[in-house]
Amino acid sequence: MINKKEDIPVFLTIQPKVLYFGTPVALITSIDKNAKTNIGPISSLWALGYNLVIGLGCDSKTYQNIIEIKECVVNLPSADLFENIEKISNLTGLNPVPANKSGKYRYEEDKFSAGNFQPMAAEVVTPPAIASCPIQLECVLQNHYIVESTIDFIPLIASVHMKVVNVRVHENLVINQDYIDPSKWSPLIYNFRHYYALGEKVGKNFRADV
């Protein structure tokens, strides 16, 4: 049966400023050649197997540290940490502040203190993890490429491929030894620049093991 024309919903063609249509928030911890730590909040991240693809601004301290040191920890915060994250959202580890961030961001050397985060040593990589983040993915750089540049060929945005070499999860979230309990894990979701937690469970995929 063909739907009647009046049954088809109305769509509008728009040009939104961002396409953060519900993506997880991550806090990337990294270090520079002087062993200074940095925390970079991001929301452009996806995983396939033990591979992570991260979208980063090329003028960010996080991007520069990863390219230089080739390691990081991708810390996944629970939804209740949004206020800590927002405390560092307008801070940058670059001094001087990049021109495109001037007026909106300010330099901060110690984002751990600024966000009231506690560092903890990673097991495999050199950068520290964040103790309050229930899931910690220790990563090494595999590849990266520029996805957007200015007309003068100045890099703006990069896609960074990281390999996860170690996974640590808070014991309260672990079931059956190697599984994360989805009923207890509540990731922080970035939904068009607003923070959300997960809603009610509506079902599970046929491939789910637990």
TrEMBL record:
Q: Where are the transmembrane segments?
A: none
For this UniProt record, the keywords arranged alphabetically read as follows: Flavoprotein
Q: Which domain of life is it from?
A: Bacteria
The Swiss-Prot or TrEMBL record lists the needed cofactor(s) as: FMN
Ranges of residues in domain Flavin reductase like: 21-198
What the entry lists under InterPro entries is as follows: Flavin_Rdtase-like_dom, Flavoredoxin, Split_barrel_FMN-bd
Q: Name one GO molecular function term.
A: FMN binding
Cross-referenced SUPFAM superfamilies, in alphabetical order? FMN-binding split barrel
Indicate whether Ribosomal protein appears among the record's keywords: no
Output the Pfam families linked to this UniProt entry.
Flavin_Reduct
What's this protein's family per the entry? Belongs to the flavoredoxin family.
Which protein are we looking at? Answer: Flavin reductase like domain-containing protein
